[in-house]
Design brief:
The chain has 433 residues and is of the alpha/beta class. Helices cover 47% and strands 11% of the residues. The chain has two domains: 175 residues, D-Maltodextrin-Binding Protein, domain 2; 195 residues, D-Maltodextrin-Binding Protein, domain 2, CATH 3.40.190.10. The protein has 18 helices and ten strands. Helix 3 links the parallel strand 2 and strand 3. Helix 3 packs across helix 15, helix 10 packs across helix 17 and helix 12 packs across helix 18. This is Extracellular solute-binding protein. Keywords: Signal. It comes from Agathobacter rectalis. InterPro entries: Bact_solute-bd_prot1, SBP.
Length: 433
């Protein structure tokens, strides 16, 4: 019911009636966007400042502005901290001040904006302009809602894997695990020998949540989390309990104090040889490069289970937070800029040793590392299914409840039954009626 009320409020804001302060007149919007003879587009972004995407988009925007004779410019406003970004974004939109371009996942809040008619249909835009097939299919599939609609544009493309210390594995005669049971056995051997099996960033929560999603993905792809969200499955059901049990089992192999361990510390532990494994995506290629080149580390993808729905070529593949467009201000000039981005982004982004969601030939004047080329080849061979992060499916309240209590479950301070009940109760309270 809460979501219906929010959606109704958003719709009223779009209509510019009944709710004071929601929306602005067409004349005011035009005046804001076209100051004098210069068109200004505002992008409220959560991308890291001076990160690869930020650098490339600034470069393209500068080129496009020059092409337009200085009559067009883009204003970037960045809030890289995601919780702060989302809070500010919701405040802006509720106040009728939605930027021209925003960053957002295809999550329940994004669906509310779509239902209120506030976002551009990106799938239609790409197809109408002959750009849809320019992307890797999985990069676009990741941005879709479960009904196949798509309102966000990917600017990145990633695979996630478990990195492991080859020297530690060799010392204890361990092989790369091919099944989930073998993975737990490897962890057990390491712990029995006084080695921290896995270092984890518990501060940001999402790395822990990935482990909860692993068993259900192997069992039934993304069907379980979709049905859980929709109230058709229970966390206390067989598949949910299996997921929570795996979380509890593997959690005993996380580093001591993982709940207070941040991203940088967890990664440093692994690279310094203080943990044997570390789960993260290819966006950390630069950090892993030296140790990989020296033959000290390698990686493996999500192990499988017997009779599972997904296979070894299917694991967590994502195209990150998407770029979405204000339906009310998406005029011909903005469309032309986005088409310019699509024509120039892929090669520029790849040149920074990043995986582009847009199919592109690698620049000949850039020397790519063996690690980059190997992972890029892996991405060309991924299966049709991919593990989609659970935080893109769940409502905000349930996701917070899940992420916070996962720390207790993984550390052994909460039972499987208690955890499952908390999640089921939260979904029952917050699910759309």
């Amino acid at each position: 019911m809460r979501k219906k009320i929010i959606s109704a409020m958003l719709a009223l804001c779009m209509a510019g009636s009944l709710l004071t302060g929601c929306g602005t007149s067409a004349d005011a919007e035009k005046k804001s966007k076209d100051s004098g003879d210069v068109t200004t587009v505002k992008w409220f972004t959560s991308r890291p400042v001076d990160g690869a995407i930020d650098q490339v988009m600034h470069e393209i925007a500068d080129e496009y502005s020059e092409k337009m004779g200085g009559k067009w410019k883009i204003e970037f406003e960045t809030t890289a901290d995601r919780p702060s970004y989302l809070q500010k974004l919701k405040t802006l939109i509720a106040g009728g001040n939605m930027p021209d371009i925003i960053d957002i996942d295809a999550d329940p809040y994004c669906q509310e904006l779509v239902d209120a008619g506030m976002l551009v249909d990106v799938k239609k835009f790409l197809k109408d302009n002959g750009k849809y097939d320019s992307f890797y299919p999985t990069a676009l599939k990741y941005q879709e809602f479960t009904d196949g609609s798509m309102y966000t544009l990917p600017l990145e493309y990633h695979v996630e894997m478990t990195w492991y210390n080859k020297e530690i594995f060799d010392k204890y005669g361990l092989s790369v695990p091919k099944t989930m049971d073998e993975w737990l056995d490897v962890c057990k051997t390491l712990k029995e020998n006084g080695v921290t099996p896995i270092s984890v960033d518990g501060v940001d929560r999402w790395p822990v949540q990935r482990y909860l999603a692993m068993m259900p993905f192997r069992e039934s792809g993304n069907d379980y989390i979709i049905n859980l969200r929709d109230g058709k499955e229970k966390m206390a059901g067989d598949e949910g309990k299996e997921a929570a049990t795996f979380m509890k089992n593997i959690g005993q192999y996380f580093n001591d104090g993982f709940a207070a361990t941040d991203y940088a510390t967890a990664q440093s532990m692994f690279l310094d040889g203080k943990s044997a494994m570390y789960y993260i995506g290819d966006w950390e290629i630069a950090a892993m490069q030296d140790a990989y080149k020296a033959g000290k580390i390698d990686y493996f993808y999500l192990p499988t289970i017997e009779n599972g729905k997904t296979d070894a070529s299917e694991f967590c593949v994502n195209s990150g937070i998407g770029m979405a467009f204000n339906a009310k201000t998406f005029d011909a000039k903005t469309k032309d800029f986005i088409l310019y981005v699509l024509d120039n982004y892929g090669e520029k982004y790849a040149a920074k040793q990043q995986m582009s969601p847009i199919k592109t030939e690698l620049p000949s004047d850039v020397e790519f590392s063996d690690l980059y080329l190997r992972i890029r080849d892996d991405m060309d061979k991924t299966g049709a299914q991919f593990l989609k992060p659970w935080d893109t499916y769940l409502d905000a309240d349930t996701n917070t409840t899940m992420q916070d209590n996962l720390l207790l479950l993984a550390s052994g301070d909460m039972s499987v039954d208690d955890f499952c009940k908390l999640i089921d109760d939260s979904i029952a309270t917050n699910a759309k009626n």
